[in-house]
Amino acid sequence: MSQDTLTPTTAPAAGSPLLRVTDAIAARREAAMGSFRHRWGGLPRPARFVPAGLLLLVLIMLPVWDKSLRESTGSGIPVIGTPNTSFSGVLFLVGAFALCAIGLNVVVGFAGLLDLGYVGFYAIGAYTVAVFGSPSSDLATAYPWLICIPIGIALTMIAGVILGGPTLRLRGDYLAIVTLGFGEIVRLTIVNTDPLGNRAGISNIPKPPGEKSDGSKLFGVVDIAPFYWLILALILLILVLVSNLERSRVGRAWLAIREDEDAAELMGVPTFRFKLWAFAIGAAVGGLSGGIFASRQGFVNPDTFDVLTSILFLAAVVIGGSGNKFGVILGAVIVVYVPERLRGFDETLFAAWFVVLVIALAVTLISRRKTLFATNLRAAATLVGGVLGFVVAVGVGTQLHSIVTEVGTENPTRLLVGAVAVVLIVGLLLVRLVGSAQAEGAHAAAIFLGAFLTVLVGAIAPYVFDEIGDGIQALRYFAFGLALIVMSVFRPQGLLPSRRRATELADRKKEVAVGVNA
After folding, report:
1. In this predicted model, which residue has the larger pLDDT, 402 or 274?
2. Predicted pLDDT of residue 360
3. CA distance linking residue 108 with residue 181, whole number of Å
4. Is the Transmembrane helix keyword given for this protein (predicted)?
5. Of 172, 201, 251, 300, which residue is most buried, by most CB within 10 angstroms?
6. How far is it, in rounded angstroms, from Cα 324 to Cα 317?
């Protein structure tokens, strides 16, 4: 082989100045993160628990601060408080979803099994406490709460084994369809069973024992803070147990099954048994959360446990980071807290919303810099298209809101969402068509449309959240369904992925890049 064959005939392009700037920013970020990890790893073990202890103290004190501020000033905690709803109630619901997300993460994140019917276990735990503890149920046993919760956990584990026994030999989409059917079977069974209250539900569900210093019940209807502290303690306990499981032989078996089930089975791992363990443990955590939720509500009916709630559980896991215990908690915070905080928009929150939106767009530009800033012409087309799309989207969104409001329809929010949905569908089709062209003008047009659609949805969302009132649940399903699609495309590892998962996806990107350049 001659020397000329080994020497490239043309020098690689240096790239645009923007590409070099964004490369430098990304390198600085990686260096900073590496330095932080190195210093954090060098700290003594007790010192690493100090930030976690401070965070736990803040979480414990949040309901107390909110209550004292409401009594003294008439408003709750600034910025993070929920002025239009009970802050303690929102915190409790976040905790219930976080507990379910941790349990579902055992199934989806650790074992790699897709479960779309997790709400079924949540419902079994809730109805167990209701049926065995409420004097209003047909059984009328009125067992104490401390007995009902273990019964609920045991029954959900049995349900997990019953579901997993015949179905865990399936994989992928087939398993997802079966689990989705399980969630609906549980709900429809409740609707059509008299001892379970049918669609009317069951009331007078028992609450945890305990009394205050004045003799009143600790876990009452008005003060929700004790329920929040209870579920916070349970989250810490489950995190410790799940962390120990992850580091044990069981956790290593789950990891092997998630990576390659056939290879794990050839190496002697009893895959069916460990998948059954994952289903049973995940179901038990979901049943525990359902039991606490039923006790807090004091009433349950089947409408609470629909398939959309199960999708929200999965959204918390995917958005937060599948396989990361703390990532799924962040996902639960986003799924539950963010829509509640957005119920009443003020100017400060509106400005913060757009700051977050701009930061998200900047992060997207940096992460896709190799494509967007490859040459000077492409960098200029990206900047021009992005800025124009941002400005036009803000103007169009504001005018669209004004027009819809002035129309005076009975449901302006529905008209607003419909108009944005039509614009979004048409825009995505145009992006697809324009993106197929290779010219720089087509690239600028695609960037313009992408920025326009992203910012338009961001500009309209505050108005929609502000006006929708009691219908915020429907918008939550839409918003997080869209978020799941976006996360699957642009960041499949989630916001806080496990280190192993992030490394896997980075290696796949390198393999794809090598294959393209070969």
Report:
1. 274
2. 66
3. 17
4. yes
5. 300
6. 9
Q: What's the CA gap between 176 and 73, in Å, rounded?
A: 50
- 217: helix, coil or strand? strand
Q: In this predicted model, what pLDDT tens digit does every residue of 218-246 receive, in sequence order? A: 888 888 899 999 999 999 999 999 999 98
Token pair belonging to 27 = 């390198």
pLDDT at residue 130 greater than cutoff 60: yes
CATH number for the domain formed by residue range(s) 86-341: 1.10.3470
Q: What pLDDT does residue 402 have?
A: 67
- Distance, in Å, from the CA atom of 475 to the CA atom of 339, rounded to the nearest integer, reads 9
Domain boundaries, the chain: 86-341, 347-517
Q: Token pair of 90, please?
A: 């929102």
Residue closest to 83 by CA, chosen among 95, 75, 71, 91:
75
What was the pLDDT predicted at 436?
Answer: 55
Q: What is the mean pLDDT of residues 130-148?
A: 84
Q: Which are the contacts of 34, defined by CB distance < 8 A and separation ≥ 6?
A: none
* For residue 6, pLDDT beyond 70: no
- Cβ-contact 208, 219 below 8 angstroms: yes
For tokens 């629909």, the residue is 306
| Res. 376: pLDDT tops 60 | yes
Helix pair angle (325-332, 225-247), 10° resolution: 150
Closest to 208 measured CA to CA, from 133, 155, 153, 157: 133
DSSP annotation of 300: E
What's the whole-number average pLDDT of the chain? Answer: 77
Task: Return the closest-CA partner of residue 148 out of 130, 161, 135, 123.
Answer: 130
pLDDT at site 9: 41
CB 285 within 8 A of CB 291: no
Q: Which three-class secondary structure state does DSSP give residue 153?
A: helix
Among 192, 191, 114, 196, residue whose Cα is nearest residue 155: 196
The pLDDT value given to residue 318? 86
pLDDT class for 442, splitting at 50, 70, 90? low
Q: What is the pLDDT of residue 490?
A: 61
CA quadruple 52, 57, 63, 69: dihedral, nearest 10: -120
Cα–Cα–Cα angle for 205, 95, 209, rounded to 5 degrees: 35
* 44: pLDDT strictly greater than 70: yes
Cα-based distances in Å from 232 to 103, 156, 498:
15, 21, 22
Give the other-Cβ count within 10 Å of 437's Cβ: 12
Q: What is the largest CA-CA distance in the chain?
A: 93
For tokens 């326009």, the residue is 452
What DSSP designation does 437 have?
-
| Segments in 408-492 forming alpha helices (H) | 412-435, 440-468, 472-490
Report yes or no: 362 and 451 within 8 Å, Cβ to Cβ.
no
Residue 141, SS3?
coil
